[in-house]
């Protein structure tokens, strides 16, 4: 099965109904899909690829020298060479990351990085807010409802951050993952992934894993745990992971449009027949649980929130 690819430009034409149906199916049945023709200029996306690649070149040596997964893998391989049975690393990721937020320091090198990434983040934020509008329409919600929830009725700004990641070549992909399987904690995630090297996989409802195929200048969309709550289980956050390769240096730029930490999250529509409602809670309280249980089953996180709100 291939992850759905949807032409976003068709929302404004005669194929709007079919496009809305495809987006609804992507949210409801897979939890991931790819958008093409988003309105973000290809020229900007090409510049973003280059500047992020240039930025990583300045970080590569530090990754090799100081990333704990590099050291742990080297130790495992040495033990294996001595005949000692080894097991896959389960508590580290083969990942170089840094995050971008408007109110935090940004990398100063390469010199063009900040200006270009600010332009990119502005475009992605516009796309995120368009997608929230589509989601509201699909769920039968009042226009602006999700932003209202995420801002606590305008009291705060929603959180908007970008994680720039690289997954360098790994000598033993069988012994470590680029990023372990998890669901995302927040709201809407927009990913500009590498179009040369794969590795991102999504778990389907039947438990099988499928690749999110590299596609030039597409934006991958997925929803986090807060959308699962807000939709009362209709749009479930999907488990996903990143596998590393022997020779590929995979780029990943994920932007997160999340609730403010003090926003109250609650179901906005009725649960499906026979299902219980999801709990209501403050997003910051959920995050305190999530950071400890990110790579563990999802249900106990929601159960913990139900307990705190009783």
Short description:
With 310 residues, the chain is of the alpha+beta class. It has helices at 16-30, 42-57, 60-66, 68-81, 113-139, 145-150, 225-230, 283-293, 299-308; strands spanning 5-7, 32-36, 96-100, 159-167, 179-182, 188-193, 200-203, 209-211, 219-223, 240-242, 250-258, 264-265, 281-282.
Can you walk through the features of this model?
- It holds the Pfam family 2OG-FeII_Oxy.
- Its EC number is 1.14.17.4.
- It catalyses: 1-aminocyclopropane-1-carboxylate + L-ascorbate + O2 = ethene + L-dehydroascorbate + hydrogen cyanide + CO2 + 2 H2O.
- This protein is α+β, with helices and mostly antiparallel strands.
- It has a single domain, classed as B-lactam Antibiotic, Isopenicillin N Synthase, Chain (Jelly Rolls, Sandwich), CATH 2.60.120.
- Helix content is 36%, strand content 19%.
- A 7-stranded mixed β-sheet has the order 1-2-9-6-11-4-3.
- Strand 1, helix 1 and strand 2 form a beta-alpha-beta unit.
- Helix 2 crosses helix 5 and helix 8 runs antiparallel to helix 9.
- The N and C termini lie far apart (42 Å).
- The mean pLDDT is 94.
Helix-residue proportion: 25-40%
CATH class: Mainly Beta
Report the average pLDDT across residues: 94
**H/E element string?**
EHEHHHEHHEEEEEEHEEEEHH
Coarse shape? globular
- Please list the strands of the largest sheet in the order they lie side by side: 1-2-9-6-11-4-3
Instruction: Please give the radius of gyration in angstroms.
Output: 20 Å
Number of strands: 13
Q: State the major sheet.
A: 7 strands, mixed
Strand content: 15-25%
Indicate the structural class: alpha+beta
What distance separates the N and C termini?
42 Å
Per CATH, the architecture is Sandwich
- Name the poorly predicted regions: none
User: Any idea what the CATH superfamily is called?
Assistant: B-lactam Antibiotic, Isopenicillin N Synthase, Chain
The helix tally amounts to 9
Count of discrete domains: 1
Assign the CATH topology.
Jelly Rolls
């Amino acid at each position: 099965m291939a992850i759905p690819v949807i032409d976003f430009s068709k929302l404004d034409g005669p194929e709007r109904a079919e496009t809305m149906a495809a987006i609804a199916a992507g949210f409801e049945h897979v939890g991931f899909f790819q958008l093409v023709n988003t309105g973000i200029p290809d020229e900007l996306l090409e510049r973003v690829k280059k500047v992020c690649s240039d930025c990583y070149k300045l970080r590569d040596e530090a990754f090799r020298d100081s990333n704990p997964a590099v050291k742990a893998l080297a130790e495992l391989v040495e033990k294996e060479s001595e005949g000692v049975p080894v097991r896959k690393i389960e508590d580290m990721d083969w990942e170089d990351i840094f995050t971008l937020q408007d109110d935090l320091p940004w990398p100063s090198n390469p010199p063009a990085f900040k200006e270009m990434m600010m332009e990119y983040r502005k475009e992605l934020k516009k796309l995120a807010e368009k997608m929230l509008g589509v989601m509201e329409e699909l769920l039968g919600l009042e226009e602006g409802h999700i932003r209202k929830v995420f801002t606590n009725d305008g009291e705060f700004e929603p959180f908007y951050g970008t994680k720039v990641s690289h997954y360098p070549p790994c000598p033993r992909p069988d012994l470590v993952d680029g990023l372990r399987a998890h669901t995302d904690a927040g709201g809407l995630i927009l990913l500009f992934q590498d179009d040369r090297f794969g590795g991102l996989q999504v778990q389907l409802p039947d438990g099988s894993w499928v690749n999110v195929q590299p596609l030039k200048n597409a934006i991958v969309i997925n929803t986090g745990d807060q959308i699962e709550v807000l939709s009362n289980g209709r749009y479930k956050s999907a488990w996903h992971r990143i596998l590393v390769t022997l020779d590929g240096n995979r780029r990943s730029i994920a932007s997160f449009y999340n609730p403010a930490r003090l926003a109250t999250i609650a179901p906005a529509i009725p649960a499906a027949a026979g299902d219980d409602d999801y709990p209501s809670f403050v997003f910051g309280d959920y995050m305190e649980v999530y950071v400890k249980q990110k790579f563990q089953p999802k249900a106990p996180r929601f159960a913990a929130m139900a307990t705190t709100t009783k």
